[in-house]
Amino acid sequence: MSLTAAFVTFGIIFLAELPDKTMVASLVMGSRYRPLYVWAGVAAAFLVHVTLAVAAGSVLTLLPHRVVDAIALVLFAIGAVLVYREGRDETGETDTTRETHERDEIRESVAAGTVAPGAPTAMPAGVRASGAAGGPTAAAGAGATRPSASEPAPSDLEVAPEERESAVSRGFWRVAATSFTVIFVAEMGDLTQISTANLAARFDSPVTVWLGALLALWSVAAIAIAGGRGLLRIVPVKVITRIAAAAFVILAILSLIDVIRG
């Protein structure tokens, strides 16, 4: 196992993923649902994508080395251009406008009408009836205190431990499945997936590249869900994308040298 390949892969994929749309999707879902549930679904989606990318990169290694290096050169050069353009486009929008656009893009992908586990739920039927009852019965007895809808009787809110556990389990699978679907679709054919395949072909070390890419994507997802906006305020997207673009250029140059040497 090559530690160099692992560190290079981690750095490249981490920088490329930070300004990516999948980080934004994770951030938005993390603000709507329980963060741990979201991360579980996102992590599973990245696991599938990285495995597919490394498998594709391993197939490329069956080709002659010069052909592999030439493919790597082209893909790294394209990656540098795409990352740089993405960063330049980001700087042309205000934070409010960008956030609005990002939310609009993933709104249809997020399951509509679901309620985050732990969020306020509807009032039990018995409580609504007692709080909404008008009529002579409710008006009678000036000294009596009418139950408030905001203060239901303890007996109305009693939930069996088995029912509570079942509800939490259903909530987890619903949120995790939603997160998995959103990220799986958004990441298909994405720059980071192509870069992972490219790195696997270049280093000819599939396990190491797989581990480095997976840890990088999981780290970015955790940062986004935990508070990605704070990070992007400290380190502007423009700076991140320029560093990532420079890294892709360096890899393209190294691939060019390998092509020339044969």
The H/E string reads HHHHHHHHHHH
List segments where confidence is low: pLDDT < 50 over at least 5 consecutive residues.
93-98, 111-145, 153-159
The major sheet is characterized as: none
Query: What share of residues is helical?
Result: over 70%
Query: Count the helices. How many?
Result: 11
What key phrases describe this protein's structure?
262 residues; mainly alpha; 11 helices; 0% strand; globular
Short description:
With 262 residues, the protein is an all-alpha fold. The chain is built from 11 helices and no strands.
Describe the 3D structure:
There is one protein chain. With 262 residues, this protein is an all-alpha fold. It has one domain (3-108, 161-261). It is 76% helix and 0% strand. The protein contains 11 helices and no strands. The protein has helices spanning 3-17, 21-32, 35-60, 65-91, 95-107, 125-132, 135-139, 161-187, 191-203, 206-234, 237-261. It is globular, with a radius of gyration of 25 Å. The protein starts with a helix and ends with a helix. Mean pLDDT is 73; it is low at 93-98, 111-145 and 153-159.
What secondary-structure arrangement, pairings included, does this model have?
Blueprint: H1 3-17, H2 21-32, H3 35-60, H4 65-91, H5 95-107, H6 125-132, H7 135-139, H8 161-187, H9 191-203, H10 206-234, H11 237-261
Helix pairs in contact: 1-9, 1-10, 2-3, 2-8, 2-10, 3-8, 3-9, 3-10, 4-9, 4-11, 9-10
